[in-house]
Structures are given as structure tokens and as C-alpha cells.
Amino acid sequence: MSLTISASYKAGDFALDINLQTEAKRIGILGASGAGKSITLKLIAGILRPDEGRICIDDRALYDSERRIDLKPQKRRVGYLFQNYALFPAMTIAENIGIGMSCSGTEKAVIIADLIRQFKLEGLEKHYPRQLSGGQQQRVALARILASEPDVILLDEPFSALDIHLRDQMNRELLTTLEAFPGHVIMVSHSRDEIYRFSDEAVIIDQGRIIDRGPKKEVFAHPSCVRAAALTGCKNFSRVRRLDDHTFEATDWAVRIHTVQVLPEKLVFIGYRAHEFEPVWGERQENCIPFILSRRDELPFETNYYICPSGKETSPYSIAAWFAQRHQWAELEAKGLPDYLKIREEELLFFVT
Amino acid sequence: MNVQFADFLQKLDWSPLFISLKTGLAATVICFFLGILVAGWIMARRKGTRAVIDSLLTLPLVIPPTASGFFLLLLFSKRRPLGMFLYDYFDIKIVQSWAGCVIAAVVIAFPLMYRNARAAFEQVDIDLIYAGRTLGLSDWKIFWRVVFPAARPGIISGTVLTFARAMGEYGATSMLAGNIPGKTGTISQRIAMVIQNGDYLTAGFWVIVVMLIALVILMAINLFAGNTDKTAQRW
How far is A90 from chain B (nearest CA, A)? Predict the structure, then answer.
């Protein structure tokens, strides 16, 4: 099983240039809105046509500008789950599920009944889409895709139209349902949690280009560039002046950091995740940042502190975020605001030119 | 008074009512299919082509009906190529005939059907069409099973308006089909004719008839094609 997508596409000011070849079965594409995620899926499905390139599932070419192959969407066997599910409003649930099936008669009826049961839609067969909740509609859309027996399934921001409390549940349901599906599944989302939970391989795209890709743990632990790190949720970045193999100055935070490991030769930026700071009271230790609190937001399970490193109060780039988790609350309550935030060397993200 | 009115009704020539209804129905059936097909066809054209053809098709809605009638007369007159051809080979006479009534009504009412159908199609969520394609449905099936049902409210109101306009047509009809009692004499032409003779009673009677028909039609639109969402109240 392999998937090859190599496509360039231009529309007005936006240019997309994607190159991806992968054996992974669950592929998550992470990107901000407007990065070209949906366009990528539409190119694969044949809804949009690339200016040039090649899109193949195994050896089957869906599109190849050199060989002049451009299969119609009808012939691609690519299932597409739309953000708003795109159920046909004038058809019942059973008709929606059955519309894309190639078999007919009793065989068709049996498969539809199976899918209705599998997707917990019993009793809703004769209902119309508008009578269903968002979660139910998504299940119908997925059943309809599976009934059409695609080789690849594309999920376009599958949870964006759902209430927040439903997202987790649907996310788990989707993973369970798709477990049995043998082909590739590509999900695009702007949510790093959804991508992390879903994918084997994570692909990060920005402004129409792939800026990082690999096994998801790898990508999230060692993003290749500042932009990729930001999209995986890293909040804090600083420019760096490398002083020697074990010391650098984080210029935006006005501190010197010593490391045990040897620093990369061309280090220019560092990143640090907001929940990895360690609060320190009293004596200043190594790799500590003195700070002034600029804002504090309370969330149910974490408290977000936005701080200005001392000496950088006037620089607008120097706000840093520290997300204190619930287990730290008791200590914070007892001792008050910490005097320093300590950087743990092993959590530093290094970026070279 | 009652005796007088009964006498009036008895002596009245009812033919305009039937001619108008017949013309309206025939023109509506033709416009219905033609309007939907043209709307579907034009949406697949390029922007430039679309602008030109759309303008030409909408023209009869904005120019005086007598101007449309002028062009129709040029086209179908027995002394012109098309009119000559139809008469010589098929023995079909358009000018001064009921067929002329229908053609005039079709040309004038067609933009209403076509524009309503097109607007209704364009409001259909495009993802429905994409979804149909990725599910392997032919474009024909997508059109009739997905797009058409979703566009139904707009198409119904277009059809009803088309019927109303076709029934009331006057300008183009009078030029192409003339006002031959019992043959091409529609209600609107009859009103104009009797007024010229100072017969306000007959004119008033037919005015009331057309108003009643129009009222029924407009209420039908409001009842069937109205917004079904009871919670939506914009003003």
C-alpha cells in the first residue's frame, strides 16, 4: 500500500506545491486555515484539477499530467467526508447510504441493514438528514462512504461542525470504525490533538507547502522548523546567540542557558512548550528566567500565565506563556507566584538555519 | 339587478377564459422543461458565454412586450424564411393563430422560469454535487436526484410565476397572434377591446376574473414554497 501525491496548483494568489509519498495507512495533515489542507484533499478526490503532477494509489494513477491521465471523481474510488457531511436532503438515511452502491436488490438491502446496525442508526432508516443530530449525520456520511467501497478515505476537518463535548466521543468512534478499513485514510485538521490521536504519519503544511512530516511522535517531539513547532502547539520561541558548545543566550528572554549536550552548530532559534516550565521559589538556579506577570487566565484544568522576562518589558515579542497544570496548583496556592521559571534542557527545541 | 346580471352572464362569451387558461398551461409546460434544461446547461458554460446568453434570454423580461412581438413577427411572418418554411412544409401557421399565442407567452414568460430555476440551482450546496461525484453517481443522476429536489421550492415558485405571466400576456400576443374571438382572443385582449367600446361592465368582469386567478396563484406560492422553518423570523 502506497500513496503518492505530487501536485502543484494555483488559484489567484494561492499556490500549492505538495510532494508526499507514504506507506502509512493513517495520515494526518495539520495546518492553519488557508494552508491548503482542503485543497489537497480536493485534488486527490478529483474535485479540483492540479496544474501538474501525479496522484497514485499503489500503481493506479488517478492523475498524471505527463501521461495525460485525469480520472473523473466517479472513477477514483476515493471517499470524501465533507465538513458539513453533504448528506442528500431529499433522501432518507437508508437511501443516502445506498445511493453510491454498485450492487442491488437483496444484497444491497442486507449491506445497508448491516451498516445501519454498525453505525447505531437503527430506527432512523426512514428519517431525513435534517431530523438527525450532528453526530448521527456524521455516522450516516461515513456509512455512505464505506458502502461505496473506496480505496482511500479523506476526512475534511471531520469534527469542526460538532459541539465540543461531542468531539471526543466522535473522535473515538471514528477511530474504532475505521480500524477495519484496509486502505489509506487521510485526515486534515487544524487541531493538533485530533491529528496526534488519529495518525501514524503526521504532515504539517503551511502556505501550500509541506514543512515537516514523519512518524507523529517524531514530528511532535522534534519539529523541523519554528512554524511547524508553532502548529504542534509550541508557544514560546526566542532568537539565539550561540556563545560556545554548551552555552547560548536567548536574546528575546535576556537569559543565558547552559546545556550538558553539545549545541547544534548553526543554532538560531529555540522553542519551549508552555507546560514544561518549572516554577522556582527563592534562590535563583541555573537556567532560570526572572519575569513579570502580565496576565493570568484560569481554565478548568490549567492556569495560563503570560509573562514578560525581566529586562524585556518593552519588547512585544518577549511575552512567554506558562501553562501550569492542576497538580501544581496546591504549591502555587501555598507559595504564591514563583520567583523564576526554570527551563529544562531536555525539553528545549532547537532550530538551525 | 340580479336578473340583469344573470342575463349578462348568459350572453357573455366565455371563450377568453378558456383560451387564456389553455395558453397559460401550454406555455408553462414548455417553459418548465426548457427553463430547467437551459438553466442546467448554462451553469456548465464559461463565464463569458454565460453572461452573453443569460442577457439574451432575460431580454424579454425587460424590453416592452410589443418589442418582443415585433421580433417574433419578423421571424414567423409567412413572408419570412422561417414562417415560409413552417407553412410550406408542415402547414403550420404561427401568425394569427393559437400557436402564436403560445409562442408569444413562452418567450415573455420564459425568463421567469429560467432565472428562478437557475437561482434555485445556484443555492444548492456545491458539496452535495461533489459528494455525489465521489460516490460514483453520474452527473445526470446527481442533477435529478440531488440538485433538483434540493432546488424544488425555487422551481415551484418559478413555475407558478411563469403561469401567471403567460396567462396575462398582452403585448407580444396581440402582435403575433392578434385578437381573433374564439381563437386567439385572450382575457387581456378582450379587456382592451371592450374598453374601446365603452363596455365597462364586461371589462370590469374580466378584470375581477384575472385578479381572482392571480390571487389564488400568489397564495399558492406562499403556502407551498414558503419557509418551513417556523423559528426563523428575520423582521
Answer: 6
Whether residues B150 and A89 touch (CB distance < 8 A) is answered with yes
Residue A261 and residue B56: Cα distance in Å, rounded? Answer: 76
Residue B3 within any structural domain of the chain: no
CB-side exposure of A24: number of CA atoms within 13 Å? Answer: 20
- Note whether B131 contacts A: Cβ–Cβ < 8 A: yes
- ipTM of the modeled complex: 0.85
Name the pTM for this structure. Answer: 0.81
Strand spans (E) along B17-107: none
If one counts the domains in chain B, the total is 1
In a domain, B5, yes or no: no
Please give, rounded to a whole number of angstroms, the shortest distance from the CA of A337 to a CA of chain B: 51
Please list the rounded mean pLDDT of every run of 10 residues in chain A (353 residues).
Answer: 92 92 94 91 94 93 93 94 93 93 88 92 93 92 94 92 83 87 93 91 94 93 92 91 91 89 91 91 89 88 87 70 86 88 92 86
Task: Give the closest-approach CA distance of A145 to chain B in angstroms.
Answer: 7
Closest-CA residue in chain B for A89?
B150
A16: nearest Cα among A5, A1, A3, A25: A5
Q: Mutate which of B123, B124, B130, B134 to disrupt the A interface (most A C-beta within 10 Å)?
A: B134
The domain that holds B66 is classified in CATH as: 1.10.3720.10
Q: Are A240 and A252 in contact (CB under 8 A)?
A: no
CA dihedral B207, B209, B213, B215 (to 10 degrees): 60
Decide if B150 and A90 are in contact by the 8 Å CB cutoff. Answer: yes
Query: How many A/B residue pairs have CB atoms within 8 Å?
Result: 67
Residue B57 counted as domain residue: yes
Neighbours of B147 (CB within 10 A): 23
* Residue B105 domain boundaries: 13-226
Put simply, the answer to whether A80 touches B150 (Cβ < 8 Å) is no
